[in-house]
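G.,

No rush on this.
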Amino acid sequence: MSNLQASDIIDKMMSEDAFSQWMGVERIDEKAGYSKIKMLVRKEMTNGFGILHGGVTYSFADSAFAFASNSHGKKAVSIETSMSHLKAVKVGDLLIAEAKLEHLSNLLGHYIVRVTNQEDETVALFKGTVYRKKEDWT
């Protein structure tokens, strides 16, 4: 098992994560099995309806999921994910994604990510399962 702290692992991940950097992801809180991040919605993130592109919402939640699922020390890769979009998101909205561990075994981890706006309204729900590799973060 890795002796790195969750924040050390997420530091390493963020340094190589060009897409999370492009989205403007900022870390709020993190610990083993948990990640809370935020981002501000920009015009270049919108679709033809003038709302946040679903792929960006998904990627934002996926970043929180990746940070939470890797924060235990073992490298983890997603094997199944899904998302429900519940409310339109507009330019200028501040989103928060909070990923929480639901179940963990030696090989699998299951997480739920709630995405909210600045009014604390849930705009999306994401769930995901990871495969936990034998390889530790070093």
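When you get to it, here's the other one too:
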Amino acid sequence: MTPEYLLAVLAVMTAVTYATRVSGLAAMRFVPLTPMVRDFLSGMANTVLVALVVPVMIGGDWPVRLGGAVAIAVMVATRNNLASIVAGVATVAMIRGVV
């Protein structure tokens, strides 16, 4: 792959990502912010995070699986997305640095 090809792919991916975000924000102007909609939107971030992490945990090696388990434990204990991400990544980094 040439650098020009990679830049073109990156540009297209950036444009598509931007378009989906902008169109979502534009569409939300017409949706009343009821408690049900608010709960849905706040839970969506967690579902996207889970959708990204679970396939990696299933296909990953044991440090990745242990890091995922730590992240889940921290999330259950603290209900803090950032803390769970940091704990999971730090666990994997420490194991890979040691092993």
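The CA atoms of residues 75 and 82 lie 9 Å apart. The chain has two domains: 1-31, 35-99.

Enjoy the weekend,
O.
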